[in-house]
Amino acid sequence: MDLSLLDIGHSYGRTRVLDAISLEIPAGQVLCIVGPSGCGKSTLLRMIGGLERPSQGRVMSRGEAPEGCLNPLTYVFQDFALLPWRTVAGNVALVLEDHGLGRARRAAIVADVLARTRLSEFAGALPRQLSGGMRQRVAIARALAVNPAVMLLDEPLSALDAQTRELLMEDLVGLWTRAPFTAVYVTHNLAEAVRLGHRIVVLSRRPGRIREIVTIDTPLAGRTTGDAGLEKVQAHLWDLMREEARAADAELLDV
Ligand SMILES: Nc1ncnc2c1ncn2[C@@H]1O[C@H](COP(=O)(O)OP(=O)(O)OP(=O)(O)O)[C@@H](O)[C@H]1O
């Protein structure tokens, strides 16, 4: 399933948050969205996911969701959003309830996504027994369980330390390489964007408009931290954002 954003604009009261956003989100690619604080990245993601309706424009989908898809647009949040009283397997199984799947089918899906996220041996653990990185792997497993048409990730690695982020990026690349998925990935972190994005959309400060869309042709599996080509792209992204990030920062301090 491909998504198209057609001339999206949005205001909260008198505050213009997004303006003239037109964008293609083709199946099988990871699209990263970067931009200064408060430029409307999360708002745009909520609109793509149908949680909020834009004041102008629309989000269109084309084509079928993948076979076995139980929830076409599925979120992964920064804070993991796991139920503390449910085990790892229980948290993943939760999203499979009420879909008319038999017990065996549900168990097979849970086993499959826990294996893909290397969590099988932690199936019976509770979230509080896990590290932050593992909790986020559970959240990713839970998202994969519904076989979404598009996975919507809002700063999924921001709560994690640098080493854990690195490991999670490797996990995401591995997951995508074995079974390509479609994702929209909002991040502050330009290093994450150049590691994970096939295309990177740079938004201006509020109201967020598209400043540039950067395409990276290097396959995800071939990208490494410290790669000179990627660092050059990252520097270019920062050039696009630096002044606006400073202005956005000052604006927030004024409030
Ligand atoms: N429900 C809402 N009602 C009113 N204003 C809102 C609402 N949600 C977001 N905003 C405002 O819209 C602007 C964009 O917010 P949003 O969270 O989308 O930006 P962002 O780019 O994701 O920010 P950050 O990088 O800091 O996470 C901000 O000024 C925010 O205060």
UniProtKB/TrEMBL annotation:
PROSITE patterns attached to this UniProt entry: ABC_TRANSPORTER_1 (PS00211), ABC_TRANSPORTER_2 (PS50893)
Pfam families: ABC_tran (PF00005)
GO molecular function, one term: ATP binding
Transmembrane segments: none
Keywords carried by this UniProt record: ATP-binding, Nucleotide-binding, Transport
Superkingdom, taxonomy of origin: Bacteria
Cross-referenced InterPro entries: AAA+_ATPase, ABC_transporter-like_ATP-bd, ABC_transporter-like_CS, ABC_transporter_ATP-bind, P-loop_NTPase
Domain ABC transporter: residue ranges: 3-232
CDD domains: ABC_NrtD_SsuB_transporters
Gene3D superfamilies named among the record's database cross-references: P-loop containing nucleotide triphosphate hydrolases
Family designation: Belongs to the ABC transporter superfamily.
The name this protein goes by in its record: ABC transporter ATP-binding protein
Record organism: Paroceanicella profunda
